[in-house]
Amino acid sequence: MIDIKRFQKDFPMLTGKTMQGHPLVWLDNASTTFKPISVLKAVEKYYTEYTSNSHRGDYDLCYQVDSLIVETRKTVADFIHAKSEEVVFTSGCTASLNLVAFGYGLTHVKKDDEILLTQAEHASNVLPWFKVAEMTGAKISYIPLDEEGRLTAENLRKVISNKTKIIAVAHVTNVLGYVAPIKELAAIAHEYGAILVCDGAQSVPHMKTDVQDLDCDFLAFSGHKMCGPTGIGVLYGKFSLLCETEPFMTGGGMNAKFDMCGDVNYLQPPLRFEAGTQNIEGILGLKVAIDYLNSIGIEEITTYERELKKYAVRQLEKTNMAEIYNPHSEAGIVTFNIKGVFAQDGATFLNSKGIACRSGNHCAKILIDYLHQVATIRASFYFYTTRQDIDALVDAVAHGKEFLDAYF
Ligand SMILES: Cc1ncc(COP(=O)(O)O)c(C=O)c1O
User: Fold this and answer.
1) Quick one: fold of 40-295?
2) Pocket around ligand 1: residues whose beta carbon is below 6 Å from it?
3) Is 198 known to be catalytic?
């Protein structure tokens, strides 16, 4: 249940002040999220009560950590309706997408094959594919967005062909906040023998994700965008595809044996992809973060954020000072400019009122050509965002003119 009072107690950052002494209004949740005390305690407990490495000792502390890692893998798997062996721990969504690109893409696409992206993708879901194209001679093409900026199944049908091997798209885009019809896209991809890689950085923290129902082939996401620690992320992959994926990193903990001649046997997925000492505090923190989200209910979170989004758009429109670029998208993201003000100046003005919003191109650099805006301000919400936070934003935008007087 959305219980704002509970969140005020659980999240130390929510009662924080800015350097200028204003109460902090945090509207940059698409960038990262605050952590509840339970997550902070889980991290602390690892260091104060059972520090040890995983998979490496025959003593109780190590068994304890190992079993917590197994539990976390199960918690993550349940959260996205996968099997435990399909959940790979990585350092974040970026690392997960790179693992698919270099572990699977490099060996499964060849010269003149095609990789399909959209113009709305984050750099982390563009640049690894550029590199794969450069290394294999495959071609990058783009599924056109519709006039609002949405990815539609109909538009995928216009460009997909038998040469298409990989389609890599965000479930929710990080600038405009549209939800892609992943289930339909995956079905079309499979008709053509291609795979669908889903960037879940902005979806998994905010909406129910069922990989079996979506039938996506890979799904990448980050812990820090869902109340977990930084430096921990997940790659889900269908087990059969993970078995065809080359390890992107090799080292301790991912091999069964190797000899002087260079013969190596890798472990089965997911351990095959987890070379070296893992981010144990991150893994343990991620479990508690997911427990926290489950205690609220992911569907409640979605509904709440969608209402907040509508409220924010309504209120911002009333000011007549905001140019909004995504009034109809579903996610809790409002991307706008204060009329006549360059985005970074606008965000600096908001900062002077204690409001933290992101400005710029938000790592979606090829979306600029679509939006015809070099920079925008993005306000993004989470379940602990309040209407008062939005009112503070709206009030500041309404008074943007005072700031502009110096500007005009
Ligand atoms: C859509 C999308 N994909 C990928 C990423 C990369 O996530 P990370 O920096 O946590 O690896 C982000 C981060 O903002 C994102 O919004």
Assistant:
1) Aspartate Aminotransferase; domain 2 (3.40.640)
2) 30, 92-94, 122, 124-125, 170, 174, 199, 201-202, 222
3) no
